[in-house]
Amino acid sequence: MTGSIVFDPLLPWMFIAGLAGLAALGVALALWRGLQGWALRALAALVVLAALAQPSYQIEDRAPLSNIVLIVEDKSASQSLGDRLNDTSNAAVALAAQLNARENTEIRRIEVRDGEGDTGTLLMSAVSDALAEEPRGRIAGIFLLSDGRVHDLERTPDLPAPLHLLLTGKETDWDRRLIVKNAPAFAILGESVTLTLRVDDEGAAPQTGSTVIDISVDGAEPQRFDMPIGQDIELPITLPHGGLNVIQFTVPTAEDELTDRNNTALVQINGVRDRLRVLLVSGEPHAGGRTWRNLLKSDSSVDLVHFTILRPPEKQDGVPVTELSLIAFPTRELFLEKIEDFDLIIFDRYKRRGILPAIYLDNVANYVEEGGAVLIAAGSDFASADSIYRSPLSSIIPAEPTARVIERGYRPGITDLGDRHPVTSGLAGAETWGRWMRQIEVDPIGGDVVMSGIDDKPLLVLDRVGEGRVALIASDHAWLWSRGFEGGGPQLDLLRRLAHWMMKEPELEEEALWAEPTGQTMRIIRRTLDETIGTVTVTRPDGTEEEITLEEVTPGRFEALYTGPEIGLYRLAEGDQEAVVGLGPAAPREFEQTIASGEVLEPVVDGTRGGVRRLEDGLPSIRSVGEGRPAAGRGWLGITPREAFETLDVTQTPMLPGWLVLLLASGLILGAWLREGRRT
To answer: What residues form the membrane-spanning segments (predicted)?
Structure first.
């Protein structure tokens, strides 16, 4: 039991202080006037003021509470290296035995495992959560059994007791680490982007000046180069294709290296086209010519060269064909020397007129064979004897004109194949599109018919020729949509999709397999013109395979979600389609730095006057130290007994009962009056 004096004032302390001031003033006045009873008056005032403060003698019946010691065991991924997990478990058991042997001590053992995603070791969050569940006044010490690689130091709480780190790992450990700096998410096709690579040896590493590094793009056969250790190396890379490019860097595992989990780095860069260079050849002025021009110029990423024939050569006025323009148009330069500079050539109602010789058109056909793109918007002249089909371009045009031009209103529609083709799939509202008034009858000789017109005759035909692509629109009335005729239609979306398909953008390939990663999960997507597909074979980083069945979500598009069991490079295959994708970082946060070190936690440990000790040097003994005293020394670590208790019962006895206050105050006041009365 413990006794103490407590106060339970009858009036607020401020009011009691005011009364004390008035009493002191009255006593001072009595003293100034020479009244001999001033001392008795002062004593009477003190008795009254003491009664108002109501002092009591309090006796508490207390039961002592045990001291709580936290043992936090780090069982994250980095602790799986070497014998760290085994050392941690053995040390936790031995430490618990030492603490249990101490009187009035309880132990709380806490295991910390990997969090969701690539969050690393959240050791201080675990400490904070544990302290929130225990009375802080009973915490006598905190022991961390870890490699010291903590990734949430900013979550460190206000610690009420000494914090100690018992460090796993060996002083002889060493590790080689590959680092890729400043890797961009996007890069422009045709322009090099510079990555900074670095290989560092950490810990007790052998003296080695260089190593080799393997570089692989999209899972292809890697190329090997020499790489100095401890130096930043700048590596210029030009992306081979648009869309996602997966670049893998790998450093071979060295002898006695702690782990190879940080010897690989995955960089995923999206290749984007900077500008689309378009050559527009207009055969003659017409209402749709300005629409083509305005449509292409409205896109800031398009560089347009417009070649328009304003005055046909059949007009007999004696002016030579070579002098029909104010300035000489560089046809030779455009169609022979610089044709490879263009991404797309558009022939809008063009027919043979002698302005572009056959050799120029033959060069256009070769341009397509070698990977170029041509879009033909056919007018009435496409069905005539002067049609460009009856030129060297016939070898690349996917449909043959029948010489029939149909002049009547019709509503363009999407074919069954068009519903599956990425150029036209999803163009909703076909039943509300405005009509076109002309269609050139053609017979397909290749390619895919994705739009139809009058009597389901082909209207838009797409084809692959050699390495290039060709699109034929069998009408010159697409401009009616841009004018809003009868409600218009999706001309802008259609022509942009056409241009991107012809530029071989991956998201518009009709036969494609790719994956969209999000953390450890990826959405596998297979686009095809076929009705069905086979299962997708997923090859994991460890070489094991798994078959995934995809479901059709829209016509021609099949999808499935897949969660990878580990971080790394995954290969996908279905039929002749292949893809690679990286899930998570190649080197998880847990394996970025693997050498056990107390450097990160030292400021926190020093702030509580705790200590850092290596388990390979033996488990230190435990001592009791006073609060605020050093809690670490040679071969020992300290805990601070808190002497916490639980109050079972409280008894209060008033020190100035009311009758005693009344008797004392009355007697002192009467004595003062009698003393002063005798003098008079």
So the answer is: 12-31, 38-57, 656-674
Same domain, 151 and 110: yes
- Are 353 and 468 in the same domain? yes
Rounded CA separation 422/419 (Å): 8
Helix (H, G, I), strand (E, B) or coil at 452: strand
3-class DSSP assignment, residue 446: coil
In this structure, are 268 and 292 located in the same domain? no
Amino acid at 209: G
Distance CA 127, CA 283 (A): 77
Q: Are residues 21 and 139 in the same domain?
A: no
- pTM for the whole thing? 0.66
User: Residue 54's domain spans which residues?
Assistant: 2-63+647-677
Per-residue pLDDT tens over the stretch 493-543? 888 888 888 888 878 888 989 898 887 889 999 999 998 999 999 998 888
d(CA 106, CA 189): 65
Q: Long-range pairs for 408-413 at CB < 8 Å and ≥24 separation? A: 408/437, 408/454, 409/435, 409/436, 409/437, 410/435, 410/436, 410/439, 410/453, 410/454, 411/435, 411/436, 412/436, 412/451, 412/452, 412/453, 412/459, 412/489, 413/451, 413/452, 413/453, 413/456
Of the residues 443, 471, 504, the one at which a domain ends: 504
* Terminal C-alpha separation, the chain: 56
The verdict on 178 and 248 lying in the same domain is yes
CATH of the domain at 486: 3.40.50.880
pLDDT of residue 21: 83
**Total tally of structural domains belonging to the chain:** 5
- Residue pair 481/385 in contact (Cβ under 8 Å)? The answer is no
DSSP string, 46-91: HHHHHHHH-EEEEEEEEEE--EEEEEEEE-SGGGGSTTHHHHHHHH
From the list 147, 155, 166, 154, the residue with the least C-alpha distance to 69 is 166
Do 138 and 262 sit in the same domain of this protein? no
Report yes or no: 462 and 450 within 8 Å, Cβ to Cβ.
Answer: yes
DSSP symbol at 335: I
The 10 Å Cβ neighbour count of residue 408 is: 10
Tell me if 334 is assigned to some domain.
no
Instruction: Please tell me the least confidently modeled range out of 51-55, 523-527, 602-606.
Output: 51-55
Both 439 and 554 in one domain: the answer is no
Q: Is the residue at 32 inside a domain? A: yes
| Residue pLDDT, tens place only, 41-52 | 778 778 777 777
The number of beta carbons lying within 10 Å of the beta carbon of residue 586 is: 23
Closest CA to 195 of 117, 247, 131, 151: 247
Residues 442 and 555 occupy one common structural domain: no
Domain boundary among 504, 523, 554: 504
- Rounded to the nearest 10 degrees, the angle between the axes of helix 287-297 and helix 491-502 is 70
Side chain identity at residue 165, one-letter code: L
Sheet holding 536-539, edge to edge: 545-548, 536-539, 568-574, 577-583
- What span, in angstroms and rounded, lies between the C-alpha atoms of 241 and 467? 14
